[in-house]
Amino acid sequence: MLDYISDAANAPKAIGPYSQAVLYGGLAFLSGQLPLDPQTGKLIEGGIEEQTSQVLHNLEAVLKRLGMDFSNVVKSTIYLSDLKHFALVNAIYEKKLQGSKPARATVQVAALPLGAMVEIEMVAAR
Question: What does pTM read for this prediction?
Answer without folding.
Answer: 0.97
